[in-house]
């Protein structure tokens, strides 16, 4: 393998999304990621379908969900609750640089696989724990899932239409955004710890919690509250601090108008035949537009209905204001810019023939990401990885019969 993290070994004891998202990032960067899974079952998301992905012979195998977060890894099956399985895991720990796990708080301590125990085996180990609520605080022992955290962390309170309009009420985001953000924060923390180790020679424990990440990711909405004392509410797809910045209905559908400054607003008004609107004292600055959004938005909506999606998008390009279609996912991958950025990749697979997967958004000039290793089948690399530890074929067979691998 090649890449920025070539030579770095990662033990991935995580499953579902937040942990695997982080370790997939590390795999994309060139690390050797060994995914440790339960014999006979594996990562929960292997069963989270339909849809399921068919093998080259047409047999349905793992769920499509699993494929979003596990490319570039090697899979081994290992039951570390058995003494034989734990012994193998400790041998892997001794050679690893990073371990990522998302067991419940204290879940690994009873097996002697917590950070304090493993740091004695490998003092250079960077051990990243991902949980719902972290390793401290009154909620530490509670299980946490993305939708629950979106609710508890405030995201659902600012997502969705207001209660006063039809269909109003709190909404979760259409993807498990807290899991994804947690995976990204975990990756950043791991890379920082990896650099710190070059200075100190020592590993460390990283405690990343979904709730912490959600609170941190409230971004401007949190700042608005903390600095003003005003609790943000739901505005649908409108923006609390920028106007106009929301979907508008056109003659044949909807576009997203995202006006970021007064110059763009003037260009839009002139294009819409509403040039005087940009000079109106009620709307001449963004602050005034926010204060008077209820008067402005209906005026703009009248003009938006006069043209089609394609007409508005072309006018936006010609006149310098941000406006775009609200694409369905099939149209996203048909978009010529998305195609030019190579955001869909075809990865060869012995089991599946080939797989169409989403590419990483990270583009490197010197250590480019290589898409040569598809998400592994369950236990695909068990014998290979154990052989690298010096475990002979006879011993591997004994481990299999004992159910340890």
From TrEMBL:
Keywords of this entry: Transferase
Single GO molecular function: transferase activity
InterPro entries per record: CoA-transferase_III_domain, CoA-Trfase_fam_III, CoA-Trfase_III_dom3_sf, CoA-Trfase_III_dom_1_sf
Record's keyword annotation contains Transferase: yes
Taxonomic superkingdom: Bacteria
Keyword Transferase attached: yes
Pfam family, one: CoA_transf_3
PANTHER family in UniProt: SUCCINATE--HYDROXYMETHYLGLUTARATE COA-TRANSFERASE
Record's protein name: CoA transferase
